[in-house]
Amino acid sequence: MKRKSLKATTALLLTFILMNLLVINIFAVSYTIDNDDAQGFSNYGSANFTLYYGSNLWYGDGRLAASGSMDTYYDYYYPSYRATSSSQKIYGEIKAWLYDINFTDNSTSYCLRDAVNDGFYSAGIINQDLAAPGWNNIGVAVLNGKSSGKIQCADRVRIYSNWWGVGTNCGADAIEVILTLH
Fold first, then answer.
1. pLDDT tens digits, residue range 62-95?
2. d(CA 28, CA 90)
3. Rounded Cα gap, residues 179 and 162, in angstroms
4. Are 132 and 101 in contact (CB under 8 A)?
5. Radius of gyration of the chain (CA)
6. Rounded Cα distance, 181 and 88, in Å
7. What are phi and psi of 9, to 5 degrees?
8. DSSP code string of the chain
9. Which among 89, 139, 131 has a CA at the least distance from the CA of 114?
């Protein structure tokens, strides 16, 4: 009799754990966004980013800007992703497609925007010149509603070139952002 009770308890516990894992994954969303609006996404970059073409670039085109200016940035917009309460955090995992010899910025920052507080949270920095060709994991940015008491909302990824990188070029091609609530 004790054996049946233990099996039933174990089955209920496993069911509960699996249901909780599934609920977390329901709130995950992923976007792969190119540097242009061919997929229906909106993008905007500082004036010094120019369009150019290359065989290794995602969809055959990319954006390039001379580094060394504090206002060199590129934004990738996606549909707003909102937490449901101020106790939830939004995690944004960011990856970048870096596959061009002209991408030479040695310290490009990738950030997730908090649309509620109009701030940017860093996912990480990568040396585009030394990056592996193809997809590169940048890191994870965390928007924490507990610190402001507000419900968080993420709406874009921004890249910044380093401002001391005179003589290098910051590249903007495709990015992938995976958003989850915790």
1. 999 998 877 889 999 999 999 888 888 899 999 9
2. 10
3. 26
4. no
5. 20
6. 6
7. -65, -45
8. -HHHHHHHHHHHHHHHHHHHHHHHHHT-EEEEE-SSSTTS--EEE-TT-EEEE-TTSGGGEEEEEES--TT-EEEEEEEEEE-SSTT-EEEEEEEEEE--TT---S-EEEEEEETTTTEEEEEEEE-TTTSPSEEEEEEEEEEEHHHHTS--EEEEEEEE--TT-TT-EEEE--EEEEEEE-
9. 89
Over the stretch 7-57, which tens digit does the pLDDT of each residue have? 656 655 555 554 444 444 447 999 999 998 777 788 998 888 999 999 999
Instruction: Please answer whether residues 132 and 144 qualify as being in contact, where contact means their C-beta atoms are separated by less than 8 angstroms.
Output: no
**∠48-138-30 over CA atoms, to 5°?**
95
Question: Residue 181 in contact with residue 73, Cβ under 8 Å?
Answer: no
pTM: 0.82
Give just the sign of the alpha carbon dihedral 153, 36, 26, 122: negative
